[in-house]
């Protein structure tokens, strides 16, 4: 199709035809970049296309597509981020997929604020156009991005909403990202059984032929099996994920770091020697991408598989890298593993310091499973800490909790604002977040949810219900 179009337009098309050609090229890139059967052809084809300046809508869409290929390649974070930023130079005029793909790359580069802004644009675009399917996919990706930066309560709210929406859609069997996102979050919340149920219900036809969905699904299944004590199946799934990613040409170390998970699993099984090749593989990928998170993952994998003081040094290095990144949950895990290594080395005082940090980071991130493990290890090291419990209030930030509690007792927005020395607009923003996290629609429901043992079922946005009535 593209060859025919180029032949018809000739070697020097006028500006309008050139814009049409760029639009067709980027559309083909969208359709071919997520399927394993076509990804290599797409990559080879577009390697021959000059990178556009980004001066027109079609050029910006092309840049958004190209940035995904750059992120997949994992060789130049600077180039990938530059493409994404140029693509987003007029974000209000981009389509949903261009926004989503640019956000995907920025997320892998840990440019989280810019990624979140692009996703907000994409969600508004989906809502304004009643595009429920793209809205759900964007919401699911935002959940995974939030999970990756240790904002698990916010991630949980997004993922639950996405799963709630697809439950009433005719095309629900053709999506996996909402279920995968929610399962990923539930594992860290200490609910691997629920995660398994979600993943077992996935019926996507030809799932193993897709680049993004299949590997995210494999990773979630592997983590669920490991959390349930089935390390053999977990390791097999992780290795399958790695082999399939390599087949797809996906070499970004931050996207589904299966090699770090496999190294940690093998170390926990006292089989660290088997992880040597995985560790070297990950270190090379991290060297290419060169972000603090990537270096932290590489140091973590090397640290857990290296005995003695050298292993402690590598885990200390991992903590330092993660502390310079937005990866709070990974930071918590590194602190936990370092604390365990110090305890095993007969250094309980240093171990307690690291384990306290792990508990604080994990609990603050909403990673309750890790927080409980770190707390138990801290107690074993002679420290003290209250039991880690889950409640609806855990989903809220400190300010959101104060606002919710005052609102539940009948205080108005102005009264809350004056009490907390913030604007009424800020209070309204906090309440909107509270309603979303707690799955309520009005302040009159807050008291029962805050004082109750569990959360109500999540609710789809009102515009989704309205769009169903028009279909």
Write up what this structure looks like.
The protein has 25 helices and no strands. It is an all-alpha fold and 471 residues long. Among the domains are: 2-129, Serine Threonine Protein Phosphatase 5, Tetratricopeptide repeat (Alpha Horseshoe); 394-452, Winged helix-like DNA-binding domain superfamily/Winged helix DNA-binding domain (Arc Repressor Mutant, subunit A). The longest helix has 18 residues, at 15-32. It starts with a helix and ends with a helix. The mean pLDDT is 89.
Describe this structure in a few short sentences:
Helix content is 70%, strand content 0%. With 471 residues, the protein is mainly α.
Which characteristics define this entry?
471 residues, mainly alpha, Serine Threonine Protein Phosphatase 5, Tetratricopeptide repeat, Arc Repressor Mutant, subunit A, 25 helices, 70% helix
CATH architecture of the domain at 2-129: Alpha Horseshoe
CATH class of the domain at 2-129: Mainly Alpha
Shape: globular
Counting helices, strands and paired strands, the structural category is mainly alpha
How confident overall, as mean pLDDT?
89
Taking all Cα atoms into account, the compactness measure Rg is 23 Å
| Number of DSSP-assigned strands | 0
Percent helix, as a range, is over 70%
CATH topology of the domain at 2-129: Serine Threonine Protein Phosphatase 5, Tetratricopeptide repeat
Q: Specify the biggest β-sheet.
A: none
Termini, distance in Å? 32 Å
Uncertain segments: none
Oligomer: single chain
């Amino acid at each position: 199709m593209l060859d025919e179009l180029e032949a018809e337009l000739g070697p020097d098309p006028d500006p309008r035809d050139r814009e049409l050609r760029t639009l067709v090229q980027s559309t083909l890139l969208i359709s071919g970049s997520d399927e394993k059967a076509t990804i290599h052809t797409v990559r080879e084809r577009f390697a021959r296309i000059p990178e556009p300046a980004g001066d027109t809508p079609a050029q910006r869409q092309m840049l958004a597509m190209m940035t995904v290929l750059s992120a997949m390649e994992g060789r130049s974070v600077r180039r990938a981020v530059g493409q994404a930023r140029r693509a987003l130079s007029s974000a209000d005029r981009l389509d949903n997929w261009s926004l989503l793909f640019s956000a995907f790359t920025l997320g892998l580069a840990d440019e989280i604020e810019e990624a979140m802004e692009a996703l907000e644009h994409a969600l508004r675009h989906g809502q304004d156009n009643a595009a429920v399917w793209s809205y759900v996919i964007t919401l699911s990706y935002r959940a995974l991005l939030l999970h990756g930066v240790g904002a698990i309560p916010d991630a949980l709210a997004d993922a639950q909403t996405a799963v709630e929406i697809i439950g009433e859609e005719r095309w629900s069997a053709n999506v996996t990202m909402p279920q995968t996102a929610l399962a990923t979050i539930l594992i860290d919340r200490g609910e691997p059984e629920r995660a398994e149920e979600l993943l077992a219900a996935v019926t996507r036809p030809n799932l193993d032929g897709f680049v993004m969905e299949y590997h995210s699904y494999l990773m979630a299944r592997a983590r669920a099996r490991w959390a349930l004590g089935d390390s053999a199946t977990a390791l097999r799934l992780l290795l399958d994920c790695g082999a399939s990613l390599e087949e797809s040409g996906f070499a970004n170390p931050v996207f589904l770091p299966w090699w770090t998970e496999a190294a940690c699993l093998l170390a926990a099984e006292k089989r660290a020697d088997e992880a040597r090749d995985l560790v070297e593989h990950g270190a090379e990928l991290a060297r290419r991408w060169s972000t603090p998170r990537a270096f932290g993952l590489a140091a973590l994998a090397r640290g857990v598989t290296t005995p003695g003081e050298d292993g402690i040094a590598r885990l200390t290095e991992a903590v330092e890298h993660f502390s310079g990144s937005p990866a709070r949950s990974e930071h918590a895990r590194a602190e936990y593993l370092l604390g365990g290594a110090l305890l095993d080395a007969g250094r309980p005082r240093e171990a307690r310091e690291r384990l306290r940090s792990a508990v604080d980071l994990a609990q603050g991130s909403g990673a309750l499973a890790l927080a409980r493990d770190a707390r138990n290890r801290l107690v074993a090291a002679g420290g003290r800490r209250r039991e880690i419990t889950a409640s609806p209030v855990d989903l809220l930030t400190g300010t959101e909790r104060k606002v919710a509690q005052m609102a539940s007792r009948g205080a108005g927005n102005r009264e809350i604002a004056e009490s907390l020395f913030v604007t009424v607009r800020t209070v309204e923003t906090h309440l909107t977040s509270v309603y979303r996290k707690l799955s309520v629609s009005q302040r009159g429901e807050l008291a029962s949810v805050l004082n109750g043992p569990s959360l109500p079922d999540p609710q789809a946005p009102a515009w989704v219900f309205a769009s169903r009535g028009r279909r």
